[in-house]
Amino acid sequence: MPPAGPSDEQLMLAYRGGDAESFAALYARHKGGLFRFMVRSIKDRAAAEELFQEVWMKLIDSRSRYEPQAKFSIFLYTIAHNRMIDHWRRRGLETVSLDEDDAPEPRAPQAMQPERRAELNRTGERMLAAIAALPVLQREAFLLHEESGMTVAEIAVATGSDPQAAKSCLRYAIAKLREALADE
Amino acid sequence: MNKKDEPLDDVPGALYRALPRDEPPPAMDAAVLAAARRSVAKRPERNWAIPVSLAAVLVLSVGVTLRVAEERPDAQMKPLAPSPAAPAVVESAAPQSPSPAAAALPQAKVAQRPSAASASGPPMNEPARPANAPSAQEPNVSPAPERKEERTIGALSARESTEPAPFVPSPRADSSQPIAPAAASAADAAATRNVPADRPVARQALRAAPPVAAESGAPMMSRSAAAESSVAASLEARSPEAWLERIAEMRAQGRHKEADESYAEFRLRFPGHAITPEILRKIAPPR
């Protein structure tokens, strides 16, 4: 459900024109979703907080060049996606291929090992563990879908992937999560 | 092919949305919002620097232009001389010292008075004032409180002036007596104060000036400036010899008073000009 009042794009244009209060409204709308998206994608909370701040700083720096060619959320999460890619590259990590056929089988998360299942007695924790166990791109697609409400096509744009691949990522992610939760 | 068109299995989604809603720490919120405000605060400086600079240059340019336009007529002011209708006859070669006849000619009496120009900035009549004609040489200055006012360009200009009523030299009824032209030039007098009706210098100024309709909607300063420019231009075109010839004509026509005043103006304008005995005889007052 779209937020009441000016759209994200109108707020960003107002901020481009010098209205700091518009930015505050925009930040209030998106800070939670973006923060959770990054914390749950990266899993390292300190690094996620740092990247979260970098994303907003990047947005602030690029405000004069902002043009509402797409939804603001796509613009924002594209910045976040690129920051995370840079982060993984710095850490020597690689994302899996978008081609699902080439994607490696997800390793059973440690949280899902039988000896730890007893510890995950709460659904929320199990859910978080299942998300953390997803491949990077599937996890990203699921989080984008849940946190920003993006469609498959929008996820494809934000992640720079093919729509079909994005759709596959999302479907696989949901299927694996359902399976992980059903295991209990 | 989106969330609405093709519903996915929403069980994981519902469970996910039931998770605690983590938020960034308040310190991070404050840091981001402060950065956003700082970025916006810098913007007006860049945006206003160029327009303000352009506006300042424009204002200064207009101010200087107006100032120059106001002062230009003043810089061209010259002392008033007789009507430019005199024939252009040139006398040549003259003795360096004036003859007794020339010495007998009346000396000019200069009205020592504050001028409007000195009150309003650079002295507008300074270029026309002879260097060796200080006001101390003309002590016979008297106020003329009962003078009849003449509605002239000078009077029009005088109404605009805020300075007090000036001194006006007393004219002599006798044409053989020294006259009292304004050393600072009749143009100055015409432009800045009320001039007596019987004062030839003022009449000459009026003759030299273009006709001005009092009912005209043009600004008074513009009319005054136009008259002064015309007077200055006519004076510039006059050579000393032609001026003397004109004085001689006045003598021949019996206009001795006018001739005396014109000669006094001539001496103020050309104090070192040598006059031949022949011309002196023509311009000397009758005995």
Mean pLDDT of chain A, to the nearest integer, reads 82
Q: Judging from the principal axes of the Cα atoms, what is the shape of chain B?
A: rod-shaped
* CATH architectural name of the largest domain in chain A: Orthogonal Bundle
Give the domain tally of chain A.
Answer: 2
Point out poorly predicted stretches of chain B. Answer: 1-6, 81-221
Main sheet record of chain B: none
The assigned structural class of chain B equals mainly alpha
Name the pair of protein chains with the most residues at their interface, and give those residue counts.
A-B, 44 and 32 residues
How would you describe this structure to a colleague?
The complex is a heterodimer of chains A (about 180) and B (about 290). Chain A folds into two domains: about 1-95, Rna Polymerase Sigma Factor, Chain: A (Orthogonal Bundle); about 95-185, Arc Repressor Mutant, subunit A (Orthogonal Bundle), CATH 1.10.10.10. The model of chain A is unreliable at about 95-110 (pLDDT under 50). Chain A has helices at about 10-15, 20-40, 45-60, 70-90, 115, 125-135, 135-150, 150-160, 165-180. Chain A starts with 7 loop residues before the first helix and ends with a helix. By secondary structure, chain A is mostly helical. Chain A is about 65% helix and about 0% strand. Chain A contains nine helices and no strands. The longest helix of chain A is centred in the N-terminal third of the chain and has 23 residues, at about 20-40. In chain A, helix 1 packs across helix 2 and helix 8 (about 150-160) packs across helix 9 (about 165-180). Chain B is mainly alpha-helical and about 290 residues long. Chain B has a domain at about 85-120 and about 140-215 and about 225-285. Helices cover about 50% and strands about 0% of the residues of chain B. Chain B contains eleven helices and no strands. Chain B has helices at about 10-15, 25-75, 100-105, 115-120, 155-160, 185-190, 200-210, 220-235, 240-250, 255-270, 275-285. In chain B, helix 5 packs across helix 6 and helix 6 packs across helix 7 (about 200-210). Chain B is rod-shaped. The interface of A and B includes residues 24, 60, 130 and 178 of A.
